[in-house]
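User: Quick sanity check before I run a bigger batch. Here is a single chain. Can you write out its predicted 3D structure?
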Amino acid sequence: MSVYEVISALADENRRRILLKLKEGKISSGDLANYLNMTPQALSYHLSKLKKADLIYETRYKNYIFYELNLSILDEVVLWINELKGGQK
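Assistant: Done. Predicted structure follows.
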C-alpha cells in the first residue's frame, strides 16, 4: 500500500460510495452492485482499485464474494496526513 494509491482510490466518488456502504458491514458483490446501481463490470473495476490500495478485502464463501473495509489502512493514512499537517504521531 502506498499513500498515493490510497489517495488516488479515495479521489473517485463511486469508490467513496462503495466505502460508505462497506462501513455498514460485510456485503456480497451482487448486493453491492444492486445497492449502487452499477453494472458488475463497473463495480469490479472500482473494487480492484480499492483492493490495490488495501482499503478493502474480500472473502469467498461458496459462489459468493464478500467485501469488507480494511480500517487499519485508513488509520495509517490519517496518521500520515496528521504528520503532514504538523500534528503528533
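The CA atoms of residues 4 and 60 lie 28 Å apart.

User: Great, the batch can go ahead then.
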